[in-house]
Amino acid sequence: MKIAVFGANGPTGRILTAQALDAGHVVTAVTRRPHDFPLSAPGLRVVGADVYNFDDLSAVVEGNDAVLSTLGVPYSRQPITVYSVGTGNIIRAMGKHGVRRLVCVSSSATDTTAGPHGGFLFDKVLQPLVTKLLGKTLYEDMRRMETAVAASGLDWTIMRPSGLFETESITDYKMAVGYINGIFTSRTDLADSMLQQLTSDEFVRKTVAVATFAQKPSLVQLLFREASSKKAAPDSVPAGKLS
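The structure corresponding to this sequence follows.
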C-alpha cells in the first residue's frame, strides 16, 4: 500500500515509518526538515512540506492510498492551530485526490470525562495540571481536529494514546472504542496500532483508545520525557506557524 506519514520525523513518526517499511508499504515521509530525516530505504520517499500550505499537502497526498498523521507541537500558552488547520488541509487534499483512509493521533487527554486512568494522583492532580494548564491550548486544538475529522466523510480512525513512552518492541497492547483504563502507551505500540487500521475496518469512523500494560515507565520518567519532547521534539513546531 502507498501511504503518506505526516509528522514523520517526530518520535512516533519515525517508528511508524520504519514499521510501515518493514511491512512492505511504500512510504512518503512528510517532514519540515527532510535533510534531517534519519531513515533511508527502498520504497521510502522523504518530502519537505508545510501543513499550513494546501498546495504542498495536495502534492504529497496525490497518488497515495492512505494517510497517517502523527503531527505534534510543543505545549504553549499561545493559541495552537497546527492540529486543526493542518489536519483540515490534509482532509481537503484527500478529498481532492479521492484518498479515503485517514488515521490520526490525538490524545486521551482530549476527553478527561471518559473515565479514570490512574487513580487519585493521576486523575485529580497530574492530569488536570497537564490538560488545564500546561497543555490547555494544545488539547483545545486537538478537540477541534477531532471534530473536523469526524465530520470529514472520510474513512477515518482517531487514535487516543495516553502517556507516551518508549519500548524496544511491540507489546500485547489493548484497544477499545472511546476509552480504556490505561495510563501509558508505548510509541511502538501506537505506531503498530495505526498500521493495523490499514488492513481492518473494525474501527473505521471511530475514536479508539490504545494503552500498553506489559511495560510502563514511572510517572516521574513519563513527565520528564513528556516535558522534554514537548520542548524539543524533532518534528515539533512553534504554536503559531510552521517554518
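The two ends are 30 Å apart (CA to CA).
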